[in-house]
Design brief:
The protein is 67% helix and 0% strand. The chain has 8 helices and no strands. The protein has helices at 3-16, 30-36, 47-54, 61-72, 78-99, 105-124, 126-130, 136-145. Helix 1 packs across helix 4. It is globular. It starts with a helix and ends with a helix. The structure holds zinc ion. Zinc ion (ZN) is lined by residues 36, 72, 133, 135, 137-138.
């Protein structure tokens, strides 16, 4: 799937699952969303966190999408940091429940992954949250400010 199609699909899924804070997606155009999603640079996002994201179950991509935009918008506050990580869990649970019946072991696998990933971000993500975002949108903004 190409990037634009992927982003469109993630937008659609965020609506379908009525995910928390999906409004944040509407603040950006497609090109910006492409830059932000997985475009948060190595300075801001350590390799292991990136790897943790790519190891997530595919159904959590839409949850990671919203989480990425929140991190792109980071105000470096403790409150929003905790809120973003908690939301990752809640949105992950919502996706798992919408996609898989209670009898389906995948529901529990996805919920577990969402909880663990939210916890990992909360425990080890602080320096990433507080360092400046290196995505193309932020780089352009910085260059414009010079
Ligand atoms: Zn950014």
């Amino acid at each position: 799937m190409n990037r634009l199609k992927e982003i469109k699909e993630l937008k659609r899924l965020s609506e379908e699952f009525q995910l928390e804070n999906r409004e944040i997606i509407g603040k950006y155009n497609m090109q910006e969303l492409c830059s932000i999603y997985n475009g948060i640079g190595p300075d801001a996002f350590p390799e292991w966190l990136r790897n943790a994201i790519s190891a997530l179950h595919p159904s959590l991509a839409v949850v990671a999408f919203i989480h990425d935009i929140e991190w792109h918008e980071s105000d470096q506050s403790r409150e929003k940091f905790a809120a973003s990580n908690d939301r990752f869990k809640r949105n992950g649970y919502a996706v798992a429940k919408a996609q898989f019946g209670w009898y389906n072991p995948r529901r529990w696998i996805v919920m577990n992954q969402a909880r663990r990933f939210g916890n990992v971000c909360q425990l080890f993500g602080w320096s990433a949250w507080t360092s400046s975002c290196e995505c193309a949108v932020c780089r352009k903004k910085k260059e414009g400010a010079k």
